[in-house]
Amino acid sequence: MEKPISFDKILILDFGSQYTQLIARRVRECQIYSEIHPYDISVEKVRSLSPRGIILSGGPASVYEKDAPRCHPALLRMGIPLLGICYGMQLIAQLLGGEVAHSEKREYGKAKLTVDRSGTLFKGLGGKGDPLTVWMSHGDHVKTLPPGFHSIAHSKNTPFAAIEESHQRIYGLQFHPEVVHTQRGLDLIRNFLFHICRCSHRWTLRSFLEQVSHDLKQKIQEGKVICALSGGVDSTVVALLLHRVVGDRLRCIFVNNGLLRKEEASQVVNLFRHHFKIPLTYVDAEHSFLQRLKGVVDPEDKRKKIGKEFISVFEKEAQKIGGVKYLAQGTLYPDVIESVSSKGPSATIKSHHNVGGLPEKMKLKLVEPLRELFKDEVRQLGKVLGLPDSIIKRQPFPGPGLAIRIIGEVNRERLEILRNADEIVMEEMTRGHFLTRVWQSFAVLLPVKTVGVMGDERTYENVIALRVVESQDGMTADWVRLPYKILEHLSNRIINEVRGVNRVVYDISSKPPSTIEWE
User: Fold this and answer.
1) What is the edge-to-edge ordering of all strands in the sheet holding 99-115?
2) DSSP SS3 for 448
3) 178 carries an active-site annotation
4) How confident is the model at residue 339 (pLDDT cuts 50, 70, 90)?
5) 435/256 Cα distance (integer angstroms)
6) What are phi and psi of 19, to 5 degrees?
7) Following DSSP, what letter does each residue of 335-361 receive, concatenated?
8) Max CA-CA distance within the chain?
9) Confidence band for 260, pLDDT divided at 50, 70 and 90
10) How far apart are the C-alpha atoms of 488 and 509, rounded to whole Å?
């Protein structure tokens, strides 16, 4: 396979912001390829990558702290266009001779931005003095501008909310253009990409497919690969992608860990064996997984034990096949950013069984072709590969399965209660034409019991929480305002049809501060 045609590239240096991957996503939405690298990337590495521009992310640190993350100052003198966001802007100001100070009045949330000089960065975003709503998140501010810089926008509490040095093509924004709360933020990013960096060679998911196929062939060569299959869109896309690259040297392994939804195991087996006609090994490992989870209540312990058991099963199956060197997984960007800080000093939120839950020493080498993609990008890639809508539009389902939707210990009795409640959620969301209109809808079994009355008798039974959210990429989410009629049907059916439940509650928290899953 020949190396695909090159395309323009933007480097994003990660200083620890939870929005770093969102910046990469926005750049890709503009059909320009982006890569995230650690903040301390070397000048030589940058030169070898030949980027059209560099974006410095935000971050939780203050630039004047002793151990604050800093990029190499020479990056600012390479003649490559630069855009600093929040911490990135403050770092540019400090490195080039400006002054950064702690703000007496911090800005968090929406703010009104007044554009003083539209110039190139704000081209087409409104004339001088026109207000824009932007998203602020900072406790420091640029107090004194570096030599040659001008202020091009301000807010009520931030006199230097956007700055520029147009001759060197260096720009800074105190707000976050990458979040949806910033009015016309994507247009601002487009201005940086096309008018300042002069990007022209577009990147699409078809070009990504060419690139990742080339990379996989180079990495795997003549080796054999097993693919950890769940039946969801992520692992299905990985399987089709690998089958396209390595053919019959791919063997998909579907492990029934006992933590799946009702009838899910048979559906996955039929899909791959009869529809896709890709070799599939089915492993019933319910007993071993439940044994590992016996007495475990901490969610991190659950994820890690499930991850270790998965690897144990895969390695045993790989030995049976013989000659297997690689394990393929459907790991995505949100999995990585919430599990580990892979590129910069970002905070860890939770481990995912296929990222933070893997053992340090593993006999198989990992292949994660979707690691740099968001969920919506994976769905688009699925379309390119010819996946049917029934798979592409499936709601995300966590790798650890129902184990993290059971708060507390996992056992067969509690799994049966949750499976039955979950089936009703799926049926009612489908009947109400909401299943494909929301990001996720599911039931959670709580570790509390409440008093109820059923058939004139006192009951003391379990509580089911309903979680329905809308989102674009899983990084942020809001709870769905379901019609009362659907909520009523859900509650009545679960209480009447699921033995062991006498109360249903609805989760109305957003992400952040909550996560989508309860564990």
Assistant:
1) 33-38, 9-14, 53-56, 82-85, 170-173, 162-165, 150-154, 99-115, 131-144
2) strand
3) yes
4) low
5) 24
6) -95, 0
7) HHHHH--SSS-PPP----TTTTTS-SS
8) 81
9) very high
10) 19
**Which is catalytic among the residues 86, 197, 199, 252?**
86
Going 423 to 429 to 430 to 435, the CA torsion angle's sign is: negative
pLDDT in tens, 25-69: 899 889 998 988 999 999 999 999 999 999 999 998 999 888 999
The CATH number given to 205-392 is 3.40.50.620
* CB-CB contact of 300 with 350 (8 Å): yes
**Residue indicated by tokens 């860890």:** 348
Mean pLDDT score, 193-222: 90
- CATH 3.30.300.10 in the chain is located at 411-506
Domain with CATH 3.40.50.620 in the chain: 205-392
- Provide the β-strand partners of residue 154: 114
Catalytic residue among 176, 243, 352, 353: 176
Q: How far is CA 116 from CA 24, 161, 458, in A?
A: 28, 10, 69
The pLDDT of residue 129 is above 80:
no
**Which one from 178, 309, 428, 519 is the annotated catalytic residue?**
178
> Where are the extended beta strands (E) located within 145-243?
150-154, 162-165, 170-173, 224-229
- Can you give the pTM of this predicted structure? 0.70
The pair of three-digit structure tokens given for residue 478, joined into one six-digit string: 């809001």
Q: In 10 A of CB 134, how many CB atoms?
A: 26
* Token duo for residue 131: 């207000």
Boundaries of CATH 3.40.50.880 in the chain? 9-196
CATH architecture of 9-196: 3-Layer(aba) Sandwich (3.40)
How far apart are the C-alpha atoms of 503 and 116, rounded to whole Å?
A: 57
Phi then psi for residue 466, to 5 deg, are -100, 135
Answer yes or no: 176 catalytic.
yes
197 is catalytic: no
CATH topology of domain 411-506: GMP Synthetase; Chain A, domain 3 (3.30.300)
Q: Check residue 105 and give its pLDDT.
A: 66
